[in-house]
Every structure is written in structure tokens, then in C-alpha cells.
Amino acid sequence: MSRFPYLRQDFAASIVVFLVAVPLCVGVAVASGVPAELGLVTGIVGGLITGLMRGSSLQVSGPAAGLTVLVFEAVSEFGVAALGVIVLIAGLLQLAMGFLRIGRWFRAISVAVVEGMLCGIGLVIIAGQIYAAAGLKAPETGIGKLVGLPGAFADALGSTEALTSLAIGAGTIAVIVLWKKLPKKVQAVPGALAAVMLATLASLAFSLPVATVEVEGLLGVIQPPGAEAFGELASPAIWGTIIAFALIASAESLFSAAAVDRLHDGPRTEYNKEMIAQGAGNTLCGLLGALPMTAVIVRSSANVQAGAKTKASRVLHGVWLLLFAAALPSALALIPLPALAGILVHAGWKLIPFRQVAELWRGHKGEALILIVTAVSIVAVNMFEGVLIGLALAVAKTAWEASHLKTEVIDKGAGPIQVYLSGNATFLRLPKILDSLEALPQDRPIEVDLSGLHHLDHACRTALETWAERHSAPDTNPVKVTSAAPDEGHDAMRVSS
After folding, report:
1. Which candidate in 291, 314, 386, 426 could, as Cys together with 42 as Cys, close a disulfide (CB 3.0–4.6 Å)?
2. So what's the pLDDT on residue 216?
């Protein structure tokens, strides 16, 4: 027992994480358009392989709702057979990034872009799973899903089966939300699991006409990618999806690690090692033809709150998932699909950062705008391009703020007009600088003081020299430009005479 001083706590926590993981693994797989068992395979690999590796000690990995949209798009475009190749190469890219020590750089990604990504994913998940809850086929695009919702509700009102299915989905969401208000002893059973069990019992007891999970068996769904699947790598389009998988899965995992670190006092995450662990897990998932994995904040926080002390809890949760998938696969066939849709609608709602949007809007409207544009772009276009748009906007905003410049003109009526420039003079601010200088009278002496500049780029320096040479009238003293010495960290600029 001395070798495993926390075995009792870790064992208890592993049961809780297992119970949280089962409905989420299955729900994410179904929503991604792949067999339900593949979600369990990814959860098993996340526990037994990634769970054993160094990185973050209490973080739990598995299939994530945040990748559902991307996986569904990939399966729709390239087919289930190609999914293994995509996940395999993405895992190898993660391994390379980990060994090259790029992991910590993911912490430099704009928080607004990450929150916007989660918001956009959440909106697409909610819209798509409402159709699934009603047993209807969802439009392919994010905009189509949102615009088509009124028509979908109208169709559902005319169908008893659709209304029954929607009721199961709505009831699942209600149980998950209300479960947290019940006594702590009752909450020992996770709300999502309780909701699925109640929905399953209700559909069986009343013989409700709702679709249930299709079961193929664990060994039946594991299909390593073949030569034909690897042939897809000749298509340039698939590489964009691979890069999106690698980057977004890595970002989700490392941001989750930062959040989990705030929940406990144990060892801190080693980001590059966590990247390697995620890469190893995804490489194996790819070889098995399973879903991609990320660290999942819901399972990780449940692990911490259940009292886990070491990585043993997440490894054991993988063992329980394996035993469940091997011994009770037929139990999956009893689960109503609208119940899983309800779980994912609730998960999508939790991804939307309402509080963060409000806080950013009050204090940093520019950051709030980046968040909103990223979310809207993901809904309107797709996840990968939406994130790229958000990142481009964040870089542009940073560049604009970095070029902050203050121009102060002092005219005492007699003597030279004094112009003070302070801040960063870059090409982004050049029109403003020239507008201010060209508005000065040509028949008065002018002194331009650049000593307050932190940076003067080549474009601004050249433009100032040209203006200084041409501005003064023939019978007026030339413009005098003074600047800090080069050794003080400023670019030298010759004085016009």
C-alpha cells in the first residue's frame, strides 16, 4: 500500500470519471457521424496510453465535443476510412511539436480567439443537435443549420415521432440542469449518466418511437487505415484538415491543462510533455481508425473534484471503459439518440462564454469584437478558416495597438512651431503623421522633436525626411528635426538643413 498511498482516492475518482465519460464518448461519436464504439476506443486510449504518460497529472483525455464539428466535416468530405489517416498524421505533428518544444507557445494564442472558437463550436453543435433530437436531417453548413431551425420546429410539430424525440432530448437537458440542485449524495451519480439512464428507461417502459444507437461491436469498428486511405494524402484539401486537427486539438488540450492546474495544488503541467502525450494518443487512435482525442475539461474537473491525487485515476477510468466496451456493448443499443443529442446541446451551451463576452465588452471592446468575429466566421465558413480569421484579426489589432502614436503641436504665436511625436511611429500611422505635418504653415520655422519615440521605422523616417526637405518656403528657416541618439534605442535620423 505504501507504493500507492492514494489508491483509495484514485480508485473512487476513476469510477466517477468513467461514469461521466461513457455518455460523452458515445454522444460525441454519434454526433461526429461515426460508430458509437469509436468514441469508447478513443476514451480507452486516452486513459491507458495518454494517461500513463507525463505532462499533466490529473487531466483526462478522450473524444471532445469541441472537435465534433471538425470531425463531422472531415468524415462528410473524405469518408470514415480516411479519418484514421487524418488523426494519425495529426498525432505525428503533435509529437513533432512536443519534441521541438513548441507546446508552451500555444499559451501565446489570443484568449479572445480561443473563446471565440469555443463559442462558434458551441453554436454549431447546438444547432446541429436540435435536428438530431427531433430525428431530422441537419443542413450541412453552420448558417444553414441556424436558418433552418424555424422550419425544423414547424416540421416537428406535425409529426408525433419528432415531437416524442424532441421531448426525450429536452427532458435529458432538464435532468442535467436540475441534477445539480439535488442533494450531494444523489449527485454522486453524474447528471449526464442519470439523464441517459432515465431517457433509456422511459423509452423502454413506454415503447416510445425513438431511434437508438446502432451497435457494431468493438472489434467490428476498429479498422486501421489501408492503402486507399493513405492515398487521400495526395489531395491538398486533406492537409488543411490535418493541420486543423493538430492545432485545434493541441490548443484545446493545453488550455484545458492551464484550467485544470488552477483547480488543484499538485504538480504543474509540463506543456511540451503533455503535447507529446497527446500526440502519442492521437497517433494510436489514428492507427485504430478512431476519433481524435484532446484533454477534456469536463472529465478533468470531475477527476479533480472527485479527489484524485495521481494519474492512476485516469488510467483506471480507461480500464473501466475497456471492460464496459468489451462486456456490455449491447447496452449501447438501448440508448435513445435524442438523449445523446440533449447531452451535446448542453455541452455546446457550456462552450459559449457568455460571462467572458460581457467582461470583454465592458473593458476591452476590441477583444470582444475578435471573439464575436471568430465565432461568426466558424458558423459561416468552417472551423479552420474561422480560427485563421480570428488569429489574423488578433494580429492586426496587436499591430495597430503597437503603433500607438501621439502628435502634439505647440504654437505660441511667435517663434517656431514645436511638434512633439511620442510612441511608435510605424507605417500604420504614417497617414496620420503626414496629415498633421502637412497642415502646418510653410512660412513659419518648425521644430520636430522625435525624442519621445520608442520606435521609428524606415517608412516613417524616409517620409519625415522628405517632408522636412520640401516643406519650408524659400525665405523661411528649414525644418529642424531632433531625435534621440542611436545608442539610446532609437533609429537615427539626419537633420534637414
Report:
1. 291
2. 78
Q: What is the pLDDT of residue 494?
A: 45
> Which long-range contacts (C-beta less than 8 Å, at least 24 apart) are formed by 172-179?
172/196, 172/198, 172/199, 172/338, 172/339, 172/341, 172/342, 172/343, 172/346, 173/342, 173/345, 173/346, 175/199, 176/342, 176/343, 176/346, 177/346
The dihedral through the CA atoms of 349, 265, 53, 37 has a sign that is negative
CA 47 to chain centre: 22
Cell digits of residue 85 = 489517416
**CA distance readout (Å), 398 to 393, 401, 402, 403, 404:** 9, 5, 6, 9, 10
Q: What angle do CA 91, 289, 244 make, to 5 degrees?
A: 40
The Cα–Cα gap between 376 and 265 comes to 37
Cα→Cα distances 179→153, 171, 186, 194, 335, Å: 27, 12, 8, 8, 19
DSSP label at 336?
Answer: B
Contacts 24+ apart (CB under 8 A), 232-236: 232/78, 232/82, 232/85, 233/85, 233/89
Cα separation, 485 vs 491, whole angstroms: 8
Q: Residue 449 is which amino acid?
A: D
The span from the first CA to the last CA of the chain, in angstroms, equals: 86
Strand 405-410 and strand 61-62: the pairing is unpaired
Q: Which helix (H) or strand (E) holds 450?
A: strand 446-456
Which carries the bigger pLDDT value, residue 176 or residue 363? 176
SS3 308: coil
Distance CA 218, CA 235 (A): 30
- Burial of 108-134, coded b for 16+ CB within 10 Å and e otherwise, reads ebbbbbbbbbbbbbbbbbbbbbbbbbb
Which tens digits make up the pLDDT trace of 207-236? 988 989 887 777 778 889 988 889 989 988
Q: How far apart are CA 20 and CA 297, in angstroms?
A: 12
Give the residue among 297, 308, 221 at the shortest CA–CA distance from 264. Answer: 308
DSSP structural state of residue 400: H
Contact 30, 216 (CB under 8 A): no
Q: What is the pLDDT of residue 276?
A: 95
Mean predicted lDDT score pLDDT of the chain = 86
**Residue 489 confidence (pLDDT) above 50:** no
196 touches 362 (CB < 8 A): no
Strand partners, 300: none
The answer to whether 65 and 351 are in contact (CB under 8 A) is yes
